[in-house]
Write a structure and sequence with these properties.
CATH topology of the domain at 189-325 and 354-362: Rossmann fold
Strand order of the largest sheet: 9-8-10-11-12-14
Strand content: 15-25%
Order of helices and strands: HHHEEEHEHEHEEHEHEHEHEHEHEE
CATH architecture of the domain at 189-325 and 354-362: 3-Layer(aba) Sandwich
Shape: globular
Number of strands: 14
Length: about 375
């Protein structure tokens, strides 16, 4: 149907219905790739965000599925309105704008595709309610299993995850969660924090701070434990005044949140000479701001991040960081999920060792 700009129906809904009509009358066939977002925006004469909203709704409803880096495709649906998911799995991630999650999605999708499984991708956009609805929707659509990175900040899994696991639904977590009976793939976060902290100690720093996630975030506190234990191991006192905390808003854990803490550092009378930072995005934002304020990295303040995202390597001051083996995490998560779907019993919890990647932001011995 043509888009009616005088119609009170939201444009993304009109586009959604138009694409559904094209699928229904077979102008778009099963497995067929849609045009790019830009091409669709030009075709419908709307903004890119309108196209993204329309396609996101169609993915959530099971009409389309996304292949990371490849495009959007028409999904196979049964006549009763649910997808024929004998070969489909659901992937529910926190925020695809975050490089860590986009890399996880890419690796999972590539491995799933190589094993003849379609992947339905869902981005919860840092909204807990949306995350729950997407998990329920995938279940209703009949996916064979799911891989989830939950937004919940507790160590224990949220109720909806526990209910699925208790009924034997194949589900693998790729965000840290506690529980020996929970299928999980990830990194040893305490060890990663220990590696980063020890590196700064080895360089001669004794006044080391930690830029942490909000205090109610279990993963941040896990890394904080590794930080504290390492200071204690090398007979350095833990100074709570050296702990800066990222905000708890939508920018939490991101570039902007780290950037804001540059101003906090500037006002500190007793400044640390080095920081271990919760993640790379926050570290890069922090570095940007302190440089604007006239500080040199690493001469005035040395920095170590966590994740080893691509931007860390190519930053103005290349970032020393803790590498998470994202390729292994993604590939192992989908392989474990498929084994569970097939009735096999893989290792319940798989934890990979992190590694230290040394670049310019931490400098040399002082």
């Amino acid at each position: 149907m043509p888009i009616d700009f005088q119609n009170s129906t939201p444009l993304y809904i009109q586009i959604k219905e138009d694409i559904k009509d094209k699928i229904s009358d077979k102008r778009l066939g099963i497995g067929e790739q849609l045009k790019s977002h830009k091409e669709l925006a030009e075709e419908y004469d709307v903004s890119l965000i309108t196209i993204k909203n329309a396609l996101s709704n169609l993915i959530d409803d099971g009409y389309l599925y996304s292949r990371v880096g490849k495009g959007t495709f028409v999904a196979q649906r049964a006549t009763n309105g649910s997808i024929k998911h004998h070969d489909s799995i659901g992937l529910v991630l926190q925020d695809l704008k975050n490089p860590f999650f986009s890399l996880i999605a890419h690796e999972i999708e590539e491995t799933a595709y190589s094993k003849s499984y379609n992947m339905l991708l869902s981005n919860s956009s840092s909204q807990v309610k949306k995350e729950e609805n997407q998990i329920k929707r995938f279940k209703e659509l009949g996916v064979k299993g799911m891989i989830v990175a939950t937004l919940r900040k507790e160590l224990r899994p949220p109720k909806i995850i526990r209910e699925l696991l208790d009924e034997g639904f194949p589900l693998v977590m790729v965000s840290y969660v506690k529980g020996e009976d929970i299928w999980y793939v990830g990194t040893d976060h305490e060890e990663g924090a220990a590696l980063g902290t020890k590196h700064l100690i080895d360089l001669g720093h004794t006044k080391i701070g930690y830029i942490n996630s909000p205090s109610n975030n279990s993963l941040g506190n896990l890394r904080l434990n590794g930080f504290k234990k390492t200071l204690e191991k090398y007979n350095l006192g833990f100074n709570p005044d050296y702990i800066l905390e990222l905000d708890d808003g939508k920018s939490s854990h991101g570039f902007n949140s780290g950037y804001k803490l540059g101003d906090v550092f500037h006002t500190m009378n007793d400044k640390p000479t080095a920081f271990f930072v919760y993640n790379d995005l926050s570290a890069l934002g922090f570095i940007k701001r302190v440089q604007e304020l006239g500080y040199s990295v690493p001469d005035d303040v040395a920095i170590v991040g966590f994740d080893d995202i691509e931007q860390a390597r190519y930053a103005e001051v290349p970032l020393t960081t803790i590498h998470q083996p994202i390729e292994k995490i993604g590939a192992t998560a989908i392989e474990k999920l498929i084994q569970i779907i097939e009735g096999k019993k893989p290792e319940v919890r798989t934890t990979f060792a992190p590694t230290l990647i040394v670049r310019e932001s931490s400098g040399t011995k002082i």
